[in-house]
Design brief:
globular; 2 domains; 4-stranded antiparallel β-sheet; 28% helix; 5-stranded mixed barrel; 506 residues
Amino acid sequence: MAESETPECSDESDKPLLPKWFAMTWPSTWYWWVPWGIGAFLVGYGTTFSLLGMIQDYHGGGVQSSFLITIAIGTLLMGCASPNPFGQMMKGFTFGADPESWSSEPKPPMEHDDWHLYRGYWDEEKEEWVRNELSPYEQDFPNINISQDDDEWVVYCEDGGLGSKKFSTEKEASDYMIQEIKNGERRDVQELLFGDHPRHNRYRALFNATPPLFTTRFLWHSFTVMFILGAYLATPANMRVEMGYIPIFLMIVGAISTIISHFSYQSSVEAWDTVTSIIKYVDGGHGELVGQIRPQIAIPQPILHLDGCTHPTWTFDDLVAWYWSYRCTETWEERTYNHETKSWETTTHTETRTIRDGGHSQDFMVHDGTGGMAVKLTTFDRVEMGEPIWSRKRRGDKTCGPYAKARHGGSLSHLWSLRALRQGEPVYIMARIKSRHHDEIPKGNVGFNATRVHHTLEAVGEDAPRRRAKVCKGNEFSVLSAKNSSVSRLGPWILLIVGAMGLFFF
């Protein structure tokens, strides 16, 4: 090939989404601008009076440590209010949607009627329609339904405008349906994946995305550490002798914070380092799955009457896992006599306790558009159900459990709340993919799934090195949004440890 014929890549997805070294970020919402503004005010206030102290130093003044502490508090607030640039980028990809819900609805829609759970086929030997147990594991397209119209059988195929066809016998209709399903197996996987799946084409640019080495949060928190150390040095020498425990305390805080920060970001690192599997082509071993929660037709769906209440607003179905709790908060006052001041003092106390709770989990199926796979939810120790989907402050009716009674004679506030994994919602799974027991493998016409064998596999909650098995409500982007560089994540805490060690030996 001639040099002029050398191909050039002009794909927009090849361009880096974030700067390599430093990314400046600002608060993205008004409620984050409030602490940022308070922090900026404290920084300005502390800086102004620190400079005045330096100017007056010739007259016996000097920088007071309290002003440096004020600046440190300000930079701490500004750092906390500065968003993670990687998280901001993820919001751009998901259009600012709630990470626990769909940013783009799966196609076919999320309704149960479109999940072909009860699709059947004609059994010539039995001369009757037989439910195909493999149908829930099939890919979503083509979406086929068969119904009888007088003496004819109609096959509805919602796939590219094919419309419907009529047949005179059940066998002809069944054969046509099976053939169309086999033809659908040849579709490009990108046509089948849900829009929120990480392997979808709309997220190709993410493969080149890496967090910047330094962030605005790292900058402000580094200033916080330096001003804290400066405040200690600005303290008079005679007082520092009495405050010799401060460097040791700072080293302990830095060490604990480093450990906590490391493990808190471990989930995002695990998700980033693991390629999301496409269920249609999934292999055994430890991996991650993203898709929609759907039922396994062999498992009946229980109905939840929260706290035993039969009222419709307290009754829930389509849940594969839930945890509910009834908590009450008691507030009371106590009067005590202070012998030093020779006066009575009133102290307000608050106590929150869980009165009743309950939970349940059952196995389900995860579907990403290309196919479905069984998930043994009962084998997972880490199940994150997200924010409460329902809460109440008053009992529903007389069928509900009784109110809690005050133990200290104070006033009570009540709260019932429910967290759950619901059918139709997105779910992120880190699990071990292994073969199902022979007796648990659904039986049916293998031709419906061509050569695909994902219905013979299941996801179980077994850990692996650097891979912790878990099930989380939401898509993978809710996990990835916390990703940060090691320098930005651990840098301020390491700086605090090193600085405190310097103060200790100094």
